[in-house]
Design goal:
The protein is mainly α and about 220 residues long. It has a domain at about 45-75 and about 125-215. It has helices spanning about 10-20, 20-25, 35-75, 85, 90-110, 115-120, 125-130, 145, 155-175, 185-200, 200-210, 210-215. The radius of gyration is 21 Å and the shape is elongated. The two termini are about 15 Å apart.
Length: about 220
């Protein structure tokens, strides 16, 4: 929601000092030098991030679960502990998997399940499984299991490219960076497409629930 007022100069200066002139300055070009408008664009950017957070979360969770279906089919339900899978990982991701398992076992003890470990792994871990390193062992053998609705001409590279774009958007939102001038509608379309390849019904639900279009229309003009 946009503030229905402009700040007094002293208040605006105090806010600018608190969030940093560099951060507010990122919006100054779009605001044509108007500091009050720049602040309102900053608030609007936060609203855009908020509007995209739900679609991003659904896409990330759906993607990692889709990849898990392939891993479980190939290596079994205990794939996080399967030696044949573990030897495919670079050292840094093998260590991440071990740390995730140790952390979750400390929290859940004998109630620890693969789902606990799955949720503890980074987006980068899942993105790695979409690389050509797994072309022979995982893809495209189990491609249709993970992405049953993908068009016939879609390749592993296409999925990786869309997933990496999702990662970049996710990280920008998490680190409070501007997204207002980086194609938020295009990013949303990328999210929906990725979800559609996994589940039409989930994509429909996200479209019905998301409110990006309303937020786009709330862009402050002056």
């Amino acid at each position: 929601m946009q503030p229905p007022f402009s700040c007094m100069p002293a208040t605006l200066s105090s806010i600018e000092a608190a969030i940093s002139p560099a951060r507010l300055g990122r919006y100054m070009a779009a605001a044509q030098g108007d500091r009050n408008l720049a602040l309102r664009l900053c608030v609007w950017n936060i609203s855009l991030c908020e509007a995209l957070y739900m679609p991003v979360q659904f896409a990330e969770v759906a993607l990692r679960n889709a990849i898990c279906r392939a891993l479980e089919t190939r290596y079994g339900a205990g794939w996080p502990h399967n030696g044949a899978f573990l030897c495919t990982l670079p050292m840094r991701l093998s260590e991440e998997l071990n740390r995730a398992g140790e952390t979750e076992r400390q929290l859940h003890r004998d109630r620890t399940t693969p789902d606990h470990i799955i949720s503890a792994l980074s987006f980068g871990f899942w993105l790695h499984t979409l690389t050509t390193n797994y072309r022979g062992s995982l893809w495209p053998i189990y491609f249709s299991i993970s992405f049953p609705n993908k068009p016939q001409n879609i390749t592993l590279r296409d999925v990786h490219r869309r997933a990496d774009r999702l990662r970049i958007l996710r990280n920008r939102i998490a680190h409070h960076k501007p997204i207002f001038d980086r194609g938020p509608v295009s990013d949303y379309d990328n999210i929906i497409t990725l979800i559609e390849w996994i589940s039409d019904e989930t994509a429909w639900f996200v479209r019905q629930t998301a409110r990006l279009s309303q937020t786009i229309n709330q862009r402050p003009q002056s």
